[in-house]
Amino acid sequence: MDPAANSYKTDEAQKVSEKRLAGKIAVITGGARGIGAATAKVFAQNGAHVIIADILDDLGATLADSIGGRYIHCDVTKESDVESAVELALKWKGQLDIMFNNAGISGPTGGSITSLDMDKVKNLLSVNVLGILHGTKYASRAMIKGKNKGSIICTSSSAGIMGGLGSHGYTLSKEAINGLVRSVACELGVHGIRVNSISPHGVPTEMLVGAFRKFVGKVDIKAEEVGKIVGERGSLLRGRGGTADDVAMAALFLASDDSAFVTAHNLVVDGGYTSADSNMSFIYQ
Q1: pLDDT in the model for residue 18
Q2: How far is residue 77's CA from residue 235's CA, in Å, rounded to a whole number?
Q3: Is 284 a catalytic residue?
Q4: pLDDT digits (tens, 9 = 90+) for 136-189
Q5: Catalytic residue among 8, 71, 138, 170
Q6: What is the DSSP pairing of strand 150-155 with strand 98-101?
Q7: What are phi and psi of 7, to 5 degrees?
Q8: Has the keyword Oxidoreductase been applied to this entry (predicted)?
Q9: What are 199-239's pLDDT values in tens digits?
Q10: What is d(CA 284, CA 273) in angstroms, rounded to the nearest whole number?
Q11: 236-266 CB burial, b ≥16 within 10 A, e <16
Q12: What's the pTM value of the predicted model, to 2 decimals?
């Protein structure tokens, strides 16, 4: 045998072993664009087999093909759709290791508590809260049955930590996610299943840019502009706003064995915004 060829095989095997999610199976709801898409790419780069579950069929299918994954149409408000996404993982690879409950909407962007459109709020909660609950329910079933432990991750928001960052309905939905995560983590810990949330702040995804367009009345505002505004006003790291890739790397940490002793935790990805007031920084000058 050629020693050089044997060395090459050894090197390749080492590269595979260094991938943080090598051989793991992941389902990502809302994975066709934004944070979900960024995470799908990062997971695949780290060796995971990724299923993208979304209602944006063209975007989702194209992305899934590009990373060697699978796509399934999934409206998270429909329990049967979420169940089907988990079943696809089991049929495809025989197990489920990671469930990233990421799908969400901004819903009505404002309005007084005295005049809330309750139908719109109910729709918001059906996506942001019931969608998370559906994903957690069926992922838990699969992980418990498979006895392969696993990681369940849910996308929350800085709006679930402090007031004034979102509409009343949106804030309600994101705080509810954090409570659900803590509750479910108590039950699933005995099975070795970890349950955590991620709370991004001001990431200029399509959803946030759309909300900015309504809020500031500037229909042509770009993602770069939104990112700059957040970097200047919503981060202790002045001039540095958050990105979808920042959140994807946080998800990678929670999905991997690097966070093996982390559960019932809300990982805040906000440049310190919800922890301190950068307006007082003049005292350090």
Answers
A1: 79
A2: 33
A3: no
A4: 999 999 999 999 899 999 999 999 999 988 899 999 999 999 999 999 999 999
A5: 170
A6: parallel
A7: -65, -40
A8: yes
A9: 998 887 677 666 666 666 666 677 676 667 666 677 878 77
A10: 17
A11: eeeeebbbbebbbebbbbbbbeebeeebbbb
A12: 0.88
Q: Which two tokens stand for residue 116?
A: 């809330």
Alpha-carbon gap, residue 19 to 14, rounded angstroms: 9
Give the C-alpha separation, 110 to 126, whole Å: 18
Nearest CA to 100 out of 149, 62, 148, 43 is that of 43
Domains of the chain, earliest start first: 21-203+242-270 (3.40.50.720)
Number of helices (H), then strands (E), in the chain: 10, 7
Residue 230 in contact with residue 242, Cβ under 8 Å?
yes
pLDDT over 50 (residue 284): no
Say yes or no to pLDDT of 38 above 90.
Answer: yes
Dist CA 5 CA 66 (whole Å): 29
Q: For the chain, give percent helix, strand, coil, nearest 5.
A: 55, 15, 30
Contact residues for 28 (Cβ-Cβ < 8 A; gap 6+)? 36, 39, 40, 43, 50, 51, 52, 53, 100, 102
Give the pairing of strands 150-155 and 193-200. parallel
